[in-house]
Design brief:
This is Lipoprotein. The chain has 191 residues and is mainly beta. Helix content is 12%, strand content 32%. It contains one helix and nine strands, in the order H-E-E-E-E-E-E-E-E-E. Strands 1, 2, 3, 4, 5, 6, 7, 8 and 9 form a nine-stranded mixed beta sheet that branches. Strand 4 and strand 5 form a beta hairpin.
């Protein structure tokens, strides 16, 4: 007598394979319908970006010790053009034109804190605003004016004058002075 092999159907495996293929197609469709993150523009730093004509402002922020006080402007201005561009800077609520001017040479980047920017040799005087209306942690408007591009008002974050942007150093409480401790049981213990 010969035994015949019993053929059994395996619907579980077929269903699992079909489900895997279907879920892979569905999940890949989600990625195809989503906007790519590399195309989204955002400021990856604490400051903001803006454009005054052809001049690109990057990572612009203010550093201040408090509301109503002076503030230092930080960030960079890049001029891709072939002629120098002069930009006037004024805080929100300034009643008269600002006498704070920054000249950005052609093909160069200048930093608003007066330091050199990378390999560029162009520098500008540090920009300080005499008084700002916002407290640290808020934003305030700063206007940037160029003769060729007009005026652009930018909502700029105000950061507290502390590390990493400020000049104030981190202070720590004085170290505790160790006291002489009495041996165990010496405080009116058992006798």
């Amino acid at each position: 007598m010969t035994r015949r092999p019993v053929l059994t159907s395996r619907p579980g495996r077929a269903f699992a394979g079909t489900a895997t293929v279907a879920s892979a197609l569905i999940l890949s469709g989600c990625a195809g319908l989503s906007q790519q993150a590399t195309f989204l523009e955002y400021d990856a730093a604490d400051g903001v970006s803006a454009q005054v004509g052809s001049v690109q402002l990057t990572d612009v922020l203010l550093v201040s010790s408090g509301q109503g006080g002076p503030a230092r402007l930080l960030g960079t201005a890049y001029n891709p053009g072939s002629t120098p561009v002069q930009i006037a800077v004024a805080p929100a609520g300034a009643s008269s034109p600002s006498n704070i001017n920054v000249t950005v040479p052609p093909g160069n980047t200048v930093r608003f804190d007066g330091q050199p920017s990378g390999n560029n040799t162009a520098t500008a005087a540090p920009v300080s605003l005499p008084s700002i209306t916002a407290a640290p942690g808020r934003t305030t408007s700063v206007t940037f004016t160029s003769g060729s591009a007009g005026t652009v008002s930018v909502s700029v974050p105000v950061l507290l004058n502390q590390y990493p942007y400020g000049t104030a150093s981190v202070t720590h409480a004085p170290a505790a002075t160790p006291t002489a401790e009495s041996p165990e049981g010496a405080e009116g213990g058992e006798g």
